[in-house]
């Protein structure tokens, strides 16, 4: 039961909506970062916080654990990887534990009165990969998923899970820098086309000249997409 208990201890940074809270967005950082770190990075890129009138944004921080690509060094990572590559096995044990922990965050929002189809989850790099595992394996009734500079391994269990089901699936929004030299653009493209072939409605934006980084254009595209998936309520009174 350690995983379930972990959800209560997951540190998080929250940006409250400007108006009435009617939807939630869970934004997962990349390896070695933190919730506050990701929020600050976005703020630097946009020259302001990412905010919505009705959407609460939750930036959780991954627990510290030994990370194999750092030769076992301790890092804030959602799961372990054998190597940063799309042609090796997934470290399923650590992925599955974190799916349980992050389910606790979704459950917290539902308990607060937010419906599952009013919750989005996504992230940058490893965070996007984690979000795809969480949504497509465990929470297919979420509003949508976004993955920035992210990929799934060629033999991902996410693909296996989608082959077995025929339910309505959350839409996927992806952006990827064309000159990303850590997570190759082709890995992101391949992930998108494989998910599309398995019945996921997908969007893929290639960002010319962009490396493994957040970019103002993609964050503005993301914000527009969030508002299509989580529209605000129609106001019945005059402002």
From TrEMBL:
<comment type="function">
    <text>Palmitoyl thioesterase that catalyzes depalmitoylation of CGAS and KCNMA1. Acts as a regulator of innate immunity by mediating depalmitoylation of CGAS, thereby preventing CGAS homodimerization and cyclic GMP-AMP synthase activity. Does not exhibit phospholipase nor triacylglycerol lipase activity, able to hydrolyze only short chain substrates due to its shallow active site.</text>
</comment>
<keyword id="KW-0007">Acetylation</keyword>
<keyword id="KW-0963">Cytoplasm</keyword>
<dbReference type="GO" id="GO:0008474">
    <property type="term" value="F:palmitoyl-(protein) hydrolase activity"/>
</dbReference>
<dbReference type="GO" id="GO:0005829">
    <property type="term" value="C:cytosol"/>
</dbReference>
<comment type="similarity">
    <text>Belongs to the AB hydrolase superfamily. AB hydrolase 2 family.</text>
</comment>
<dbReference type="GO" id="GO:0160049">
    <property type="term" value="P:negative regulation of cGAS/STING signaling pathway"/>
</dbReference>
<dbReference type="GO" id="GO:0140896">
    <property type="term" value="P:cGAS/STING signaling pathway"/>
</dbReference>
<protein>
    <recommendedName>
        <fullName>Lysophospholipase-like protein 1</fullName>
        <ecNumber>3.1.2.22</ecNumber>
    </recommendedName>
</protein>
<dbReference type="Pfam" id="PF02230">
    <property type="entry name" value="Abhydrolase_2"/>
</dbReference>
<dbReference type="GO" id="GO:0052689">
    <property type="term" value="F:carboxylic ester hydrolase activity"/>
</dbReference>
<dbReference type="InterPro" id="IPR029058">
    <property type="entry name" value="AB_hydrolase_fold"/>
</dbReference>
<feature type="domain" description="Phospholipase/carboxylesterase/thioesterase">
    <location>
        <begin position="14"/>
        <end position="226"/>
    </location>
</feature>
<dbReference type="InterPro" id="IPR003140">
    <property type="entry name" value="PLipase/COase/thioEstase"/>
</dbReference>
<dbReference type="InterPro" id="IPR050565">
    <property type="entry name" value="LYPA1-2/EST-like"/>
</dbReference>
<keyword id="KW-0378">Hydrolase</keyword>
